[in-house]
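Handout, page 2. Input:
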Amino acid sequence: MRIFMILVASAALAWGQAAQPLRLEKTIELPDVQGRIDHMSIDIKGERLFLAALGNDTLEVIDLKAGKRAKTIGQLQEPQGILYVAETNRLYVANGKDGSVRIFDASSYASLKTLDYGDDADNLRYDSARKRIYVGYGGGALGEIDSEGNKVADIKLDAHPESFRLEEDSPRIYVNLPKSRKVAVVDRDKHTVIATWGTAMAFANYPMSLDESDHRLFVVTRLPARLLVFDTHTGKVIQKLPVVGDCDDVFYDKTRKRIYASGGDGAISVFEQKDADHYVASARIATVKGARTSFFSPELDRLFLAVRREGSQSAAVQVFAPQ
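Output:
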């Protein structure tokens, strides 16, 4: 009877782990990295993950195949946003402290150019069709950079931009503006704001993701901790759901119709899309307190979670495999 009960318990545990939408596959330690870790980018072909170690003033290059750090680029100024552009094999690093965007050769890691944006250079995005890089910075603007690393234009906003997303089939950019409690809709051809959508009594809208085919924008607020689902045709919020606290990144898994939101409260909230108008919370995956930034790669089918150093526990990247 005892053996039977052990077998039943083991089977139940195995089933429970298998039923989770994310499985921790491995942990890559970064023993010398101190302080807060911000955003990430990826080199698909080279299987390299680039990580902004903001509190360490470094960019960490991780060899995903070998499962270890390959390179550290130092002497940065609170790096926040990271962007790897495969077409030119260049790395763009946005620095919060001095407002610079620094451009590196992604093979030699040599510094190629520095662009001055004055203050708080933050998130970076790439428009592959137009060959343009966008950076959010300062008290309220998006800077546009061409493929040669030249400043092209600025799009003025009424508050500092946090996460933003570019539509592929239109010139729209959706921009989180937490200090003015809204989402700005930008026309990147006209370099102007064409609409704004309020977040009502939900504050601190930092992370954002996009399901362009279903015309849905996912915005996470911290006060209260909510996932807001916007209809991008109307700008209306069609659903609100509780989410992990202190969230700093959210991603849409198009293949599985899922949303992953990572938060500093020590969890990843997972939501299932029943249809374009209906979403349900399906799991809360326990992680590490303070681990709030992440990166989902649909090409590698992996979710990477940045874990900052806590006491004797070194900083690390946890690699999750969707199930």
